[in-house]
Design goal:
The relative contact order is 0.19. The protein contains 13 helices and 18 strands. The protein folds into two domains: 2-200 and 371-460, Zn peptidases (Aminopeptidase); 205-256 and 302-369, 2-Layer Sandwich (Alpha-Beta Plaits), CATH 3.30.70.360. The chain starts with a helix and ends with a helix. The chain is α+β, with helices and mostly antiparallel strands and 462 residues long. The strands form five sheets. It has a six-stranded mixed sheet with strand order 1-2-6-3-7-17, with helices on both faces. Helix 4 crosses helix 13 and helix 11 crosses helix 13. Bound molecules: ligand BES and manganese (II) ion (2 copies). One manganese (II) ion (MN) is lined by residues 86, 125-126, 158, 185.
Length: 462
């Protein structure tokens, strides 16, 4: 792997310049007005894969945005690593909170990233992390040290639920044949505390609409006489947690896998500072389910959160009105073995049941996905741990994450493959928020670590 590392060291500036160009294209999958940019990004990713020497590169059309697929084969009998990532990004708003424009990448130093970080939407989630794989594979191919076969599958709809990727995977089981899936779309604990993600939460997402009177009313003439849908919605939402922050939907916890005391004790070994956590978020204290630590609340426990709530008059000044309708978007993060469809159904039934007379309630389900866990005794995990040890000089800590990548559970179900989540982002990198950034340390460390994974994985499967 020496030539590979040498190649990386020699090409650092170019690797950064190329990522910066990619970050300039606003590939926002949620907003149709960016459609041409999303397509342009797919083309650019495909061009990169061609230029690094992949044997076969294809832009696969779907009912939505295309999937960029590529193959490089050394020898069919050798192991095949399938790299998954996404080239789409979250919307950048609120734009006014960015200290530099979201699609004009700049390098700035921060307390956590003293050597600099790239500020741009998608810098960490996931263009920066996906592109580390393109550059790591380039380094291995061009230095003649690629030890196995590799396939790329880079999608453009992760941030909107990966529906078409799900279809693509089901229709292309043979094409996607591999031994392990490798993904960098998660994080690690800190730059001096490497960790490997061993679990992701699932997701059930619903939108609710509460209708009271058939039109907006004068709040003096009708106030007190009719159900105010905003009051009612607020009360219904508030009742979804009890005083211990347990979720009150009947049956919600029925299938939740509880961890053993040993597993919880193991988890508690990961470093966590309550003070630093609160300080970073400007809060006096944390808030959550009784009986669980902050780390547990954010990973092994299911949650329910309102993501948005609106209705009535929100403009300048005061308008005395009882709105006809109120709305909320609600997400539930799920853990093994909760079934997203079942949870959505439980939510719907419960939410309808608690609605008072005088309002009508409509619940619309959005995309969802199952939770996933990776064992730490697999060859893939061992290879990843060895790779981190080599580049960080420390054993990585296995950590379950609170985020979701719904396609990971599908990889296991449909392709029968485990996913290794080699994420190099930090929780403080502001993904999905204004001022998203990705440390240069993290970008380069990722590019350096990935080739060692290939080498160890190939070695361990012999
Ligand atoms: N890369 C994130 C997920 C993530 C981030 C997992 C950090 C673990 C650590 C991904 O792009 C994402 O944002 N997923 C969405 C779900 C999706 C269905 C929109 C999420 O977790 O909200
Ligand atoms: Mn992502
Ligand atoms: Mn994301």
């Amino acid at each position: 792997m020496n030539q590979t590392q040498h190649f990386i060291a020699e090409n650092k500036q170019r690797f950064l310049d190329e990522l910066i160009e990619l970050l300039k294209i606003p590939s926002i999958s949620a907003d149709p007005s960016y459609s041409s940019s999303v397509h342009q990004t797919a083309d650019s990713v495909a061009d990169h894969l061609k230029s690094i020497g992949m044997h076969h590169v294809e832009i696969c059309q779907t009912a939505g945005y295309p999937i960029v697929y590529a193959e490089w084969t050394k020898e069919p009998s050798l192991p095949t690593i399938l790299v998954y990532g996404h080239y789409d990004v979250q919307p950048a708003d609120p734009l006014e909170l960015w200290t530099s424009p979201a699609f004009e990448p700049v390098i700035k130093r921060t307390e956590i990233h003293p050597e600099g970080a790239i500020f741009a939407r998608g810098a960490c989630d996931d263009k920066g992390q996906m592109f580390m794989h393109v550059k790591a594979v380039e380094a291995m191919i061009k230095s003649g040290e690629m030890p196995c076969n590799v396939k790329f599958m880079i999608e453009g709809e992760e941030e909107v639920g990966s529906e078409n990727l799900g279809i693509f995977v089901k229709e292309n089981v043979e094409k996607l044949k591999a031994d392990v899936i490798l993904v960098s779309d998660t994080g690690m604990l800190a730059n001096d505390t490497p960790s490997i993600t061993t679990g992701l939460r699932g997701l059930s997402y619903v939108e609710v609409e509460v209708t009271g009177p058939n039109r907006d009313l004068h709040s003096g003439l009708y106030g007190g006489c009719v159900a105010n849908p905003i009051n009612v919605l607020a009360k219904m939402v508030a009742s979804l947690h009890d005083e211990n922050m347990h979720i009150t939907i009947p049956g919600f916890y029925d299938k939740v896998v509880e961890l053993s005391d040993e597993e919880r004790a193991e988890m508690a070994k990961a470093p966590f500072s309550h003070e630093k956590y609160c300080k970073a978020l400007d809060m006096e204290d944390v808030y959550g389910e009784a009986g669980y630590s902050t780390m547990e609340r954010g990973s092994i426990r299911p949650t329910l959160d309102v993501n948005g709530i609106w209705g009535g008059y929100t403009g300048e000044g005061a308008k005395t009105v009882i709105a006809s309708k109120a709305y909320a978007k609600i997400s539930m993060r799920l853990v093994p073995d909760q079934d997203p469809n079942e949870i959505t159904k439980l939510f719907m039934d419960h939410f309808m049941a608690i609605a008072p007379k005088g309002v009508r309630v409509k619940v619309t389900p959005h995309h969802g996905g199952e939770a996933a866990v990776t064992p730490i005794d697999s060859i893939g995990y061992k290879a990843a741990a060895l790779a981190y040890e080599q580049t960080f000089g420390k054993r990585p800590i296995p950590v379950r994450s609170g985020g979701s990548i719904p396609i990971v559970a599908m990889f296991e179900k449909v392709l029968g493959l485990k996913t290794i989540l080699m994420g190099f982002g930090l929780d403080s990198d502001a993904i999905h928020s204004p001022n998203e950034h990705y440390g240069l340390f993290n970008y380069y460390k990722g590019i350096e670590t990935i080739p060692y994974f290939y080498a160890h994985y190939t070695e361990l499967t012999k």
